[in-house]
Structure formats: structure tokens, C-alpha cells
């Protein structure tokens, strides 16, 4: 019976060792990026202190934005949009999807007000 | 803490397990203390405030039991007058009353006040009372102890062993409902602290099977049943197939969930060299309602029989009283499951089923009819299953109205079918689960060469009236062996089940 436990663990321990090591390398497997995008947290700078980002004001009053964002809580702070604007030069206009209606956006009523 | 959680599997259990056997090398008493402390920690993980309640209940019942037990023992020896002994009966009744008041306050006070307000038009208000986890189980366990003590069946009064008997973590939250006489001798055995590799191997394998049932089957079935019952609760009227999917999915969810919990509890306990009583024996294979209650939540059925049905008079006062006692027992058994009218109706329905079943048995006997052939048994099994599924609709529904809406749907009063595609996938899953239930051997049968439970196994085999199609090869193939191949398969099953633990869900019987 002792052998039985040995053989049981000979399967379980390697599987969990690999899973643990992968999780350790890839950063938490339950992070938001992994959960929603299947990306590893490691690829997005959790191993170093994030450089300061100069956050621009949201492009609410742009009349002809290059990128239109209907965002949730991830978009409200305008952080990643600021990086996109800085790196690409595109004008990004962000709306909170919970606070506007689709018709307002397509007719431009929201932007003009 | 849940058995199906990372913290239990990778932290709590290994620490308690190795600690117990390590301490047991030097001191049996300290090992028992360790297991008791671990059990209290296990309980306190949910809400530490209720550990005090649990300990108070234990201290009270231990003290009451101690006094009753010593009076009874001295009375039997002739050292004290008989009327002095008869006072023990008053003490017993008082102690049971205190237990029931405690249970009544936490479990039924809000229910009582709501109904009182409804009937009398008053507006009494009670704050929401949180139901302490496992209170129904530890209250019943201790009532059984008090009665056993009064009947002179209790010989040991070690406080640590008593506390361990009540709090022992494999059974504390959702049973089985234990008997003092079957647990205390096991805790007292010296070799309980000695690592037994056979028990560890068998217990671990039973635990793995239970975990798999819970994580891979019961939780998936919940995804079918819950939306249907939730939608019915807000006024949706299901069509025939939708209603049947909901009712069957819940019946199977409850089956796999409770069976999983029972397996895990038995497996964990066996690793500590302590055998729990069997609690579950393929109830859906029953060929009558009487048979069903010998297979479903067996320790609760035993408790209700010994401590309610028999004291009410059992079958000793004629047919009418017998049926009345059966009905009352099942009604209260229903109420034990929860403070709600749907539980009362469920209990009453099973009381009625049992009355019909006993009447039928009497009629059969009078007519001189035998057991019938295979076809008759299949028909009886199908009828029993149908009756049980109808009962579960009341058990699961949030109100009587919702239950009736489901039943209307099940007889086709809202039409047959609207969208086939989602129903088709759900039916596939349900049929697969039904095959598992009816064709495959249960855990007791898979481990039949080993003594995995403490007392009932032989009795259970003798009352077994299986309607399953016993394909010998499957039964032989699935017999557990301590081979390396079985160990590897178990290892893979365990690893996969644990990887699916991302959505940890409670066991259904925790709420009772």
C-alpha cells in the first residue's frame, strides 16, 4: 500500500511542480490579464516598478478621434489611452459604456454637448 | 473551510495529518487533543465567533451527559434510590429541550416570526439571525449522546474524546450524524495514532473520487438546474422539457453533491484510522420509498427512527398510529432540512409516500403476491425515482408557487419545447449522469473488499435491492486495487479535479 501512495504522488507531484513553476515564472495565473486575455502577467512589467505615465485628459471633446473607446473601469482613468497617444500619435476618445447611449455617440450629440 | 478548496487540500489536511501521526508516536492523548484543536480551527475558519457557541454547546451537553450517566450507573448498581434515578429522566428532557431551543432560535425564529406576522397581522421584527454552520448536525449528534447515556449505552466520559466526537472535522459540517457508541471506542484505540498505509491508500482514493464527483459533475449540473429554478422564482413558466431538465438536473446535482461530500468525509476519516458510518448507498437504485430512505442520508434516517419514530410509539400501537408516527417523523425530518414551508411539504410528501408504500406492502402480503420479476422491479424503481424527483422540486423551489409552476411545466401545461439546441446539450449531460447513477457501481461497491465504514456495511448489502443493470465486467473492472496503474489514474483524476477548483462552491447540505 505504501507503493500505491508513492505511485499516486509520482503523478501528482510532477504535475503540480510544473504547474507551480510555470505559475511562478509567468506570474499569478489568476491575474486579470491571464483571466481575461490569456496573457502572462510577466509580459506586462510586474517584475519592475512601473515607470510614471503622464496621464492626458480624456479626449472627450475631440470631434474626429482616430480611436473611439467604449470602456469600463479599465478605461476610465485614461492610462493606457495616454500611452497609446504618446506612442502612436492617435487621438483617443473614451466613453464610459455605462453612462452613455449608443445613439448619442454615433450622432455626435454627446461630443458636441 | 471546504474539502474542495486549495487551503484544505494543500495546507490544512497535510499539516493535521502529519501532525497527528507525529504527535501520536509519543502521546495518544496529545494526538487526540491535536485533532480536536484542528477540528475547532476548521470550524472557526468559517466564522470564529461561532466556535464559542459550539464549545458552549459541547460543555453543556457533556456536563448533562456526565451527570445523567453517573446517576444511571449508580442507580443500576443499587447505590441510590430509584426515584433519584428517575430524576435523570427530567434532566434528560431538560437537556434535550435546551438543545432544541438553541436550534430553534438560530434556525426557526425568523421563520416563526414571519408566519406569526402573516397570520395575526402583527409586525414583530427580528434581526437576521445567521445560521451557525452545522448546528443541525452537532445538535442531533449530542441529543443522541444524551439519550444513549440515559439508556446506559455510554461507558466513556473523557472530555477530549467527547469534544473530538462532536467536532471531528470530517463530519462536523454536514454529517454523517454520529453515534457516540460507534466513535468513542475508535478514538480510544491506541493504534488509531499509528499510520496505516492501507487506510491511507483506500481513504485517499475515496476522497479523490468524492472530489471528482463534486467538482466535475455536481457543479456542472448546478449550472443547468440553478438558472431554471431561479427563472421560475421570478415568474417564468418553463415548458415540458425545460422543466424536466431543471428537475432532473437538480435531482442529480443533489445526488452527486451529497454523495461526494459523504465520500470525502469517509475517505478523510479513514486516513486517520477512524471509520465513519455509511451515509449513502445508491439511493436512486431503490425500488421503493422505504428502500430509498434506507439508502439516502442513512445516518439521519437512523437518527429519526431511533430518537423520534420509536419514542413516538413506532409501530407498537396499531396501523393508524404507525402511519401517523411515520408522517410526523417525516414532517419533522423535512423541517430539519430548513425553515421553510417547501421543506415541510417535502417531508409531508415523503411521509405520505411511506404510508402508501406500507399499505401496498400489506396489500401484497394479504394477496400473497411475491416480489415480482425483473420488469416489475424496473417499474417499481422508475416509479420510486419519479416520486423522489417530484419531491425534490419542492425541496429546491423557493416557494410553493414556484414548485407548482415547475410541476405544471413537467406535465406539459406550458407547452413542450421552444428552443431545442440548449435543451439537447443539457439532455446529453443528464443522460450521461443517469447512466453513471444506474449502471456504475457506487463507492461502497468499488471498495467492497475493504472495510471503509464502521458498522452498517453488511446490513446494507443484505437490504440492497438494486435495479441497476449489473454488467459484471464493469463491476469487476472498477473494483479498486492497490496497483500502480490505479494509483496513476487516481493521480491524474486528482490533479485534473484540483485544477478545476477555480470556482469553489459549497456543498448543498452545508445549508441544513
Q: Can you walk me through this structure?
A:
The complex is a heterodimer of chains A (113) and B (512). Chain A is mostly helical and 113 residues long. Chain A has six helices and two strands, in the order ααβααβαα. Chain A has helices spanning 2-26, 32-37, 73-76, 79-88, 102-107, 109-112; strands spanning 67-71, 92-96. The longest helix of chain A has 25 residues, at 2-26. By secondary structure, chain B is mainly alpha-helical. Chain B folds into two domains: 6-194, no CATH class; 199-511, no CATH class. The relative contact order of chain B is 0.11. Chain A binds chain B through residues 1-12, 15-16, 19, 30, and chain B through 197-198, 200-201, 204, 482-484, 486-488, 490-492, 494-495, 499, 502.
Strand content of chain A: 5-15%
Widest sheet: strand ordering of chain A: 1-2
The overall strand count of chain A is 2
**If you compute it from the alpha carbons, what radius of gyration of chain B comes out, rounded to the nearest whole angstrom?**
24 Å
Which secondary structure elements does this structure contain, and how are they paired or packed?
The complex is a heterodimer of chains A (113) and B (512).
Chain A: H1 2-26, H2 32-37, E1 67-71, H3 73-76, H4 79-88, E2 92-96, H5 102-107, H6 109-112
Parallel strand pairs in A: 1-2
Chain B: H1 6-24, H2 28-44, H3 49-77, H4 82-120, H5 135-150, H6 159-167, H7 169-172, H8 180-188, H9 197-233, H10 240-271, H11 289-293, H12 298-312, H13 318-337, H14 341-367, H15 374-396, H16 400-410, H17 420-439, H18 443-446, H19 457-463, H20 472-477, H21 484-499
Amino acid at each position: 500500500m505504501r507503493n500505491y501512495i508513492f505511485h499516486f504522488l509520482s503523478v501528482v507531484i510532477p504535475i503540480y511542480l510544473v504547474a507551480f513553476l510555470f505559475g511562478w515564472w509567468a506570474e499569478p495565473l489568476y491575474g486579470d490579464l491571464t483571466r481575461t486575455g490569456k496573457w502572462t502577467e510577466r509580459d506586462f512589467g510586474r517584475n519592475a516598478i512601473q515607470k510614471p505615465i503622464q496621464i492626458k485628459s480624456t479626449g472627450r471633446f475631440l470631434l474626429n478621434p482616430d480611436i473611439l473607446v467604449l470602456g469600463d473601469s479599465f478605461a476610465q482613468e485614461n492610462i493606457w489611452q495616454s500611452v497609446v497617444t504618446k506612442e502612436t500619435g492617435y487621438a483617443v476618445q473614451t466613453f464610459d459604456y455605462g453612462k452613455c447611449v449608443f445613439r448619442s455617440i454615433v450622432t455626435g450629440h454627446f461630443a458636441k454637448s | 473551510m471546504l474539502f474542495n478548496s486549495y487551503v484544505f487540500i494543500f495546507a490544512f489536511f497535510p499539516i493535521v495529518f502529519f501532525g497527528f501521526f507525529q504527535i501520536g508516536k509519543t502521546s495518544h492523548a496529545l494526538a487526540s487533543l491535536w485533532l480536536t484543536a484542528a477540528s475547532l480551527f476548521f470550524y472557526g475558519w468559517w466564522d470564529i465567533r461561532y466556535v464559542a457557541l459550539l464549545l458552549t454547546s459541547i460543555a453543556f451537553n457533556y456536563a448533562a451527559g456526565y451527570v445523567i450517566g453517573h446517576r444511571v450507573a449508580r442507580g443500576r448498581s443499587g447505590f441510590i434510590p430509584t426515584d433519584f434515578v428517575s430524576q435523570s429522566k427530567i434532566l434528560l428532557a431538560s437537556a434535550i429541550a435546551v438543545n432544541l431551543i438553541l436550534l430553534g432560535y438560530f434556525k426557526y425564529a425568523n421563520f416563526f416570526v414571519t408566519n406569526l406576522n402573516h397570520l395575526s397581522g402583527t409586525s414583530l421584527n427580528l434581526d437576521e439571525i445567521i445560521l451557525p454552520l452545522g448546528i443541525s448536525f452537532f445538535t442531533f449528534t449530542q441529543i443522541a449522546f444524551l439519550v444513549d447515556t440515559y439508556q446506559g449505552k455510554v461507558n466513556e466520559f473523557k472530555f477530549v474524546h467527547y469534544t473530538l466526537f462532536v467536532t471531528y472535522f470530517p463530519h462536523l459540517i454536514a454529517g454523517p450524524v454520529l453515534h457516540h457508541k460507534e466513535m468513542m471506542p475508535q478514538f480510544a484505540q491506541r493504534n488509531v495514532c499509528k499510520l496505516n498505509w492501507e487506510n491511507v491508500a483506500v481513504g485517499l482514493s475515496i476522497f479523490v473520487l468524492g472530489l471528482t464527483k463534486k467538482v466535475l459533475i455536481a457543479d456542472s449540473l448546478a449550472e443547468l438546474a440553478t438558472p431554471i429554478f431561479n427563472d421560475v422564482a421570478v415568474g417564468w413558466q418553463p415548458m415540458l422539457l425545460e422543466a424536466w431538465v431543471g428537475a432532473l438536473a437538480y435531482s442529480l446535482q443533489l445526488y452527486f453533491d451529497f454523495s461526494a461530500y459523504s465520500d470525502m468525509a469517509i475517505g478523510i476519516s479513514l486516513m486517520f484510522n477512524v471509520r465513519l458510518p455509511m451515509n449513502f448507498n445508491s439511493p436512486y437504485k431503490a425500488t421503493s420509498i422505504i428502500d430509498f430512505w434506507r439508502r439516502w442520508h442513512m445516518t439521519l434516517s437512523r437518527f429519526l427512527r431511533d430518537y423520534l419514530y420509536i419514542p413516538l410509539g413506532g409501530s407498537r400501537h396499531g396501523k393508524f398510529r404507525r402511519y401517523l408516527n411515520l408522517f410526523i417523523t417525516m414532517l419533522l425530518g423535512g423541517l430539519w432540512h430548513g425553515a421553510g414551508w417547501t421543506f415541510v411539504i417535502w417531508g409531508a410528501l415523503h411521509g405520505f409516500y411511506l404510508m402508501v408504500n406500507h399499505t401496498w406492502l400489506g396489500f401484497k402480503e394479504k394477496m400473497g403476491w411475491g416480489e415480482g420479476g425483473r420488469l416489475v422491479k424496473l417499474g417499481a424503481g422508475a416509479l420510486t425515482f419519479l416520486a423522489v424527483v417530484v419531491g425534490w422540486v419542492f425541496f429546491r423551489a423557493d416557494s410553493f408557487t414556484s414548485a407548482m409552476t415547475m410541476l405544471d411545466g413537467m406535465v406539459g401545461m406550458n407547452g413542450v419545447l421552444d428552443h431545442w439546441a440548449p435543451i439537447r446539450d443539457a439532455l446529453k449531460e443528464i443522460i450521461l449522469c443517469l447512466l453513471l447513477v444506474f449502471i456504475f457501481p457506487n463507492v461502497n461497491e468499488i471498495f467492497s473488499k475493504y472495510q471503509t465504514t464502521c458498522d452498517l456495511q453488511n446490513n446494507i448489502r443484505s437490504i440492497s435491492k438494486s435495479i441497476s443493470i449489473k454488467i459484471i465486467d464493469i463491476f469487476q473492472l472498477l473494483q479498486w486495487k492497490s496497483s500502480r496503474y490505479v494509483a496513476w489514474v487516481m493521480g491524474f483524476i486528482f490533479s485534473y479535479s484540483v485544477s478545476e477548483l477555480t470556482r469553489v462552491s459549497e456543498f448543498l447540505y452545508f445549508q441544513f
